[in-house]
Design the sequence.
């Protein structure tokens, strides 16, 4: 997914948080500082909201050296406001379990978290102590699992150890109780079970034990004694004593008819306890993490803590086991609880049990606010709930939000709901609340500033760009929703180019996004979008911020949905059901051949083998040894096979060897460029036959041609040989559809006619991805690298940046050759800044050899008012290259924001924010990190008015886009063959950037919806030119127009001279460059580079010429009457 849509709320300049605009009245903080949450990381998101007087909810996201962490906090003042804390459970029962939401609803709680650890595979009963607000003891052991979070009868909290104390006395015999309603009886002990135990069979508490006895009491009299517990639940007047080993023997003293007095409770030192719930580890004690708290496993966690005097309770959940949230160790959890203000804290059940719910102002019931790792709420035994005082139900205020993102849902794009494009709408809702934030009724009136129109249904329509506050009001109650009106939309794009429905019961979703001319975007209200599609094939219904799609037939079908907004349109395809086709049974060995790289190290051979169904298949025997560089073994098909139809998935039967290689495939699309890479399996971790399959991304140009399947190993230390067998190459396809190709977005930062040598700009050159090795110091790639440097230096730049992958491998001799080429070609003429790419690690597995020669992998320098921040993404992300460089990036941006000598900032790293290719394999691997970088830069330019750019390479194509005013230029390869088609940036070359040192900051009032400082950065994307062709008519009659175009020839590529290729069109005195309507009266002809149209104006002769990267071509035009 492009980060245009994925931008998250992130840290802004000076540590402020930017993102969703909310009513300041509902953004009440709880005294927890950003630094307390961030600890040694950076806080990238924070949202605060009141739950009730004295109860505040905070959600956060942070990045630290170990990765991303998302969490939720409930901060409660226990000393006032009347909020009470209570244990909640399964309808008053100890066993069984319920989702936390149902437990909270039973007691009318407005927030809460899960509680004790429990017997997850059997009775679901909690292991420790449970005490309700009434003081009723529900469950407890006499020993074991006794650490407990306690609310005293004075309303204050603490962490304490609570123990069961109980006896059963028949007059002559006194038996000590070891358990109350526990999931298991302690060894040699006696457990008491009451009607509160619930419906779980009591046999499960002593499963598999040889010596067991149950004595059932009814109204205090023994009615049965048996060696197997009964399976029926206890009646209201019954109790059960279950013993094991010595405890079972002791119970034989109780005979049917005996009167038994059972007394139980907590030890006398716990007389002040009103509420209690157990956990396992005490995470914090007197403001320190105890030494016995482990610092190993990362997992979702839940904790409860109290400040030093017990007047403040902190409930914390952290998500885990997810790409976007790593989870915390117990020690880390303790450290975070202390940082948040807890003096003492207890670990509650975690993993899939971790759950938090909190009420939003104006809602009656709380919602799940964390992300349970099971995907939904787990059945749990108990939890802690917060119960508010009853409010007046009188309207106090409104919570105003976008209707499209007010409902829970995976597609809700809250971060952009406060934006609306000029001429389009945003539908708002206003939910009333009273002084306790409980629901209160009242219909509001709506008001807003003059740059929007708002009707009395809360529909806001943008009139002109700018900030505005929309207000819902009734009497003294009001609610505000700050909004930003963007410019007029210039293009549309669907959130996905393809909705694939696996069967008729499946549901798909898409939204339509609108973009203005400066790259600012938001989703478009369904009411503003007109859809056309085959209604006999699919059903499309507006829902939230987009559209829900369902198939209407069980047949394999496809259709195209066209979305129109005014004069703009975009398309996406919908497919339902896929048909499988075996395109090659791999029973003809003559069509396949094996090879391996590096040559001379890794080896590969092919041979016939038995297939998965008893037929013939092909085996690939490989050895990924002999080198620490990336090794691969290929099984290639000759000739390449055209795949039928428009496949969405490519698969094969693979006999795995369990060696752990990465399994991939390559296929070409009809657009040209290098092969697309498809991931069949991240690791071959199985043995025997298994069918594996890769998704074919939408956006490829059909038909596709299959090339090869291969195993690859990137780790230098993993050296092994193995064998896989490949059988039945298969595609799964839907019926073909034909869509219009997406319109090419032409960004004005790229000079398509002229040069950057204007208005006093100073210049620097950028090259990347030459990818040579020392195996052949005179290879074509080396020659291309030298050629690129010479072409760049000929333009006399202030300095040269090599933005990664100068080499293809990073052994000592490879790095030495790189240094030799730079020394020989540059010879000290200009400074050279070398940013490492992923290939600068290939071989050693890190930058060790590169650093020996080129030094530090990151740096920052200022040049003529521009700050350059060079970062190391060589291992696929900035964090992988060292978390310190992320902290330093934040520091450099904060300094540049206030430094009057800095006019703008350019961040450079090898990996791009977004790979423009359909497979998106060549971009920053951590998508949240990529979004954070762009958001930081967007916040920087919005708060300062200074320009911001992120310049990258790696994707094998030249491109240029922008997001929220942040420029995102991308350089392609200077040596290695490009990855894209020639008309889509797929050429070799380099870039020349021109910076305007006199660029002024954007006006403060315009920064959030426009980028008037756009001209500070311009770039020429210069292809290597082996030869240049200019095609134009030799003659035209006056008033006639015809196409004229140029083509760059490089190797076997024909590159059209149009965006993103930079060129300088020129002509003789009598030829005007520009639209015909702007030509002076004496002009014989005009040529408009934007349209490619040559227009004859008056009789005469004129010359048209074009220059591309220093190579010129011209032609003469004769205009007749």
Sequence:
């Amino acid at each position: 997914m492009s980060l245009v849509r994925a931008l998250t709320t992130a840290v802004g300049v000076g540590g402020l948080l930017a993102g969703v605009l909310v009513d300041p009245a509902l953004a009440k903080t709880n005294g927890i500082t950003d630094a307390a949450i961030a600890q040694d990381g950076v806080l990238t998101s924070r949202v605060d909201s009141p739950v009730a007087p004295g109860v505040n909810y905070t959600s956060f996201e942070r990045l630290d050296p170990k990765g991303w962490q998302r969490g939720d906090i409930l901060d409660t003042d226990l000393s006032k406001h009347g909020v009470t804390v209570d244990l909640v459970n399964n309808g008053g029962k100890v066993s069984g379990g319920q989702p936390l939401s149902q437990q909270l609803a039973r007691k009318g709680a407005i927030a809460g978290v899960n509680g004790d650890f429990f017997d997850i595979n059997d009775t679901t009963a909690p292991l420790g102590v449970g005490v309700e607000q009434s003081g009723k003891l529900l469950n407890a052991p006499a020993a074991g699992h006794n650490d407990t979070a306690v609310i005293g009868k004075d309303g204050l909290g603490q962490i304490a150890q609570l123990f069961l104390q109980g006896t059963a006395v028949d007059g002559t015999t006194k038996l000590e109780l070891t358990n109350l309603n526990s999931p298991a009886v302690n060894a040699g002990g006696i457990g008491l079970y009451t009607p509160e135990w619930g419906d779980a069979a009591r046999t499960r508490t002593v499963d598999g034990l040889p010596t067991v006895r149950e004595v059932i009491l009814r109204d205090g009299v023994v009615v049965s004694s048996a060696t197997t517990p009964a399976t029926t639940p206890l009646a209201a007047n019954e109790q059960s004593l279950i013993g094991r080993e010595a405890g079972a023997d002791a119970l034989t003293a109780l005979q049917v008819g005996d009167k038994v007095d059972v007394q139980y409770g907590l030890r006398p030192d716990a007389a002040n306890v009103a509420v209690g719930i157990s956990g396992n580890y005490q995470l914090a004690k007197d403001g320190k993490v105890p030494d016995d708290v482990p610092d190993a496993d990362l997992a979702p966690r839940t904790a409860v803590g109290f400040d030093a005097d017990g007047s403040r309770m902190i409930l914390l959940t952290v998500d885990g086991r997810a790409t976007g949230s790593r989870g915390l160790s117990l020690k880390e959890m303790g450290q975070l609880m202390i940082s948040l203000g807890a003096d003492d804290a207890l670990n509650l059940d975690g993993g899939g049990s971790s759950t938090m719910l909190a009420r939003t102002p104006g809602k009656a019931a709380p919602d799940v606010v964390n992300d349970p790792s099971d995907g939904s709420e787990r059945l749990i035994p108990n939890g802690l709930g917060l119960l508010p005082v009853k409010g007046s139900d009188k309207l106090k205020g409104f919570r105003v939000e976008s209707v499209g993102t007010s409902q829970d849902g995976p597609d809700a794009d809250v971060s952009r709901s406060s934006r609306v494009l000029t001429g389009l709408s945003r539908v708002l809702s206003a939910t009333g609340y009273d002084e306790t934030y409980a629901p209160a009724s009242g219909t509001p009136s709506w008001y807003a500033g003059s740059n929007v129109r708002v009707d009395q249904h809360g529909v806001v329509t943008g009139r002109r760009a700018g900030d505005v506050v929309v207000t819902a009001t009734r009497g003294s109650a009001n609610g505000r929703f700050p909004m930003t009106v963007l410019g007029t939309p210039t293009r549309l794009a669907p959130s996905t180019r393809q909705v694939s429905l696996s069967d008729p019961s499946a549901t798909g979703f898409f939204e339509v996004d609108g973009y203005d001319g400066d790259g600012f975007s938001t989703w478009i209200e369904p009411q503003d979008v007109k859809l056309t599609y085959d209604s006999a094939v699919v059903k499309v219904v507006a829902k939230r911020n987009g559209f829900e799609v369902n198939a209407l037939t069980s047949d394999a079908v496809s259709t195209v949905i066209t979305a129109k907004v005014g004069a703009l349109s975009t398309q996406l395809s919908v497919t339902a059901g896929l048909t499988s086709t075996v395109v090659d049974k791999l029973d003809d060995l003559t069509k396949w051949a094996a090879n391996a790289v590096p040559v001379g190290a890794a080896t590969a051979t092919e041979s016939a083998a038995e297939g998965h169904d008893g037929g013939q298949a092909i085996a690939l025997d490989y050895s990924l040894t002999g080198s620490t560089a990336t090794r691969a073994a290929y099984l290639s098909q000759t000739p390449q096979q055209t795949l039928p139809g428009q496949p969405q998935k490519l698969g094969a039967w693979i006999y795995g060897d369990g060696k752990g290689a990465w399994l991939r495939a390559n296929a070409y699309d009809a657009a040209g460029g290098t092969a697309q890479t498809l991931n069949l399996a991240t690791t071959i971790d199985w043995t025997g036959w298994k069918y594996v399959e890769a998704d074919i991304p939408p956006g490829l140009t059909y038909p596709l041609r299959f090339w090869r399947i291969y195993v690859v190993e990137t780790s230098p230390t993993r050296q092994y040989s193995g064998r896989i067998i490949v059988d039945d190459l298969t595609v799964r396809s839907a019926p073909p559809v034909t869509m219009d190709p997406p319109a090419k977005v032409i960004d004005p930062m790229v000079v398509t006619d002229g040069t950057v040598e204007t208005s006093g700009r100073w210049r620097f050159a950028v090259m990347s991805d030459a990818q040579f090795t020392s195996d052949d110091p005179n290879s074509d790639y080396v020659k291309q690298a030298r050629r690129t440097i010479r072409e760049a230096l000929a333009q006399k730049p202030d300095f040269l940046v090599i933005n990664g992958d100068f080499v293809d491998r990073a052994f000592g001799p490879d790095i030495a050759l790189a240094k030799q080429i730079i020394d020989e070609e540059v010879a000290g003429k200009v400074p050279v800044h070398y940013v490492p790419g992923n290939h600068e690690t290939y071989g050693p597995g890190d930058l060790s050899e590169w650093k020996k020669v080129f030094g530090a992998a990151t740096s920052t320098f200022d040049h003529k008012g521009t700050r350059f921040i060079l970062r190391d993404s060589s291992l696929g992300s900035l964090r992988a290259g060292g978390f310190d460089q992320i902290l330093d990036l934040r520091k450099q941006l904060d300094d540049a924001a206030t430094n009057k000598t800095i006019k703008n900032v350019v961040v450079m790293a090898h990996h791009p924010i977004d790979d423009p290719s359909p497979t998106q394999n060549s971009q920053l691997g951590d998508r949240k990190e990529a979004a954070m970088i762009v958001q930081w830069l967007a916040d920087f330019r919005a708060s300062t008015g200074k320009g911001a750019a992120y310049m990258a390479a790696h994707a094998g194509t030249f491109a240029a886009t922008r997001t929220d005013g942040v420029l995102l230029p991308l350089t392609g390869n200077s040596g290695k063959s490009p990855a894209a088609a020639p008309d889509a940036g797929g050429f070799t070359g380099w870039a020349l950037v021109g910076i305007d040192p006199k660029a002024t900051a954007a006006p403060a009032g315009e920064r959030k919806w426009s980028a008037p400082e756009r001209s500070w950065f311009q770039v020429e994307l210069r292809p290597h030119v082996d030869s240049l062709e200019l095609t134009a008519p030799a003659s035209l009659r006056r008033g006639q127009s015809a196409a004229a175009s140029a083509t760059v020839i490089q190797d076997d590529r024909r590159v059209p001279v149009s965006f993103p290729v930079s060129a300088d069109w020129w002509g003789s005195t009598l030829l005007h460059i520009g639209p015909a309507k702007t030509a002076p009266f004496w002009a014989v002809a005009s040529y408009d580079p934007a349209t490619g149209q040559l227009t004859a104006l008056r009789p005469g002769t004129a010359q048209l010429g074009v220059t591309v990267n220093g190579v010129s071509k011209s032609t003469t035009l004769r205009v007749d009457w």
Observations:
- Residues 1027-1120 form a domain with the Immunoglobulin-like fold (CATH 2.60.40.1080).
